[in-house]
Write a structure and sequence with these properties.
By secondary structure, the protein is mostly beta strands. It is 6% helix and 43% strand.
Length: 125
């Protein structure tokens, strides 16, 4: 099954470097359901999380996975060989301050120097 689309599709990247796209549908009771389908690109493709693209050439394929009970489970995946980045890329997530994890927020490098005082006694040489 071939897939082409002139509309933007947002590509999500997980912590393992695997990509997926989201499908969303509206139910009869006006609620929404979402599902994610894995998408695979050529080896040299590197995308950030939440990158909007326009798919030019792709198809739906599958692979079989052995389950613990000895059966085979079918998994579907989109194989994309041609796409273009969408013109209006979504805004990146705000950068977090690494010092917040330790209970102190340090805004600038000058504040770091003010809080840490090193004397000659602290140096090993």
């Amino acid at each position: 099954m071939n897939i082409t689309n002139d509309k933007e599709v947002v590509v999500y990247k997980n912590e393992y470097g695997k990509y997926s796209v989201m499908l969303r549908k509206k139910n009869q009771d006006d609620t929404f359901e979402s599902a994610y389908i894995p998408i695979q690109f050529n080896k040299d493709v590197k995308l950030e999380n939440k990158t909007p693209i326009k798919i030019k050439n792709a198809w739906l394929t599958f692979y079989k996975l052995d389950t613990q009970d000895g059966n085979k489970e079918t998994r579907y995946i989109i194989r994309c060989t041609e796409f273009e980045l969408a013109a209006n890329k979504t805004e990146e997530e705000p950068k977090r301050n690494p010092f917040e994890e330790f209970g102190k927020t340090i805004e600038t490098e000058s504040q770091i120097g003010e809080q840490i005082q090193i004397t000659d006694d602290d140096l090993p040489f």
